[in-house]
């Protein structure tokens, strides 16, 4: 674990019976990322997909992902030559930037291996944040404590690393969610407002559906052309979009991104998040003003909606 990943890491286990089938595990991480960013990295499905696999030999396939109270996340952990492990998480409580509670059921071959109650307490500032994760584990088919220690420990290291290269932009737009969603997910209107002040878009192909894409050039005020390629892997109407950002058509990926839309007293809270592929790309983006430029883009969306 590198120093900037987690300045404090602890795991404790306290078996509750003689067989060790019940245990309480605690994991702690200090993360060099703002509180709001860590919360998005912990809860946003697009971000969770980035850090969920505990090690390179494990592939995680998400079958469902619905991060809201009463929603659930279902995934398959795949390791070559071994049976798939099914993980079902159900969200019981979500208090933004404060706390989440979920249950977790692990099974393989139709046999339940373990159940757990997972509580995440998050705190921090605009510069740093802290996650304390408590897992109340009940092993059923076999003793799962060691696997939980290893899996959660590695996964939370990944989470810390992902959070430290994540950018989150938010704006409350004074318009109903239906209107804001319609301006975003309309192939005719999206190119009209996308991009910072003074930029325009030239579309080559656009298909705003799950599995679709948007191939376009962003043109700066001085005429500089920036080729872009967005690939959409999730579209949940009026709730969220998940997509990847590429440097030009079929170019290298530089970020996993999402946009979420939340009702807020008749207005719409828009959250735009990006997990950059490397820390270097994140720092480069911050250096050229990506935060300010992104906020300008959301400002253009608000002005566009207001003008309709």
UniProtKB/TrEMBL annotation:
Domain Activator of Hsp90 ATPase homologue 1/2-like C-terminal: 175-296
Tree of life domain: Bacteria
A Pfam cross-reference name: AHSA1
Family classification: Belongs to the AHA1 family.
The name this protein goes by in its record: ATPase
Lineage: Bacteria, Pseudomonadati, Pseudomonadota, Alphaproteobacteria, Hyphomicrobiales
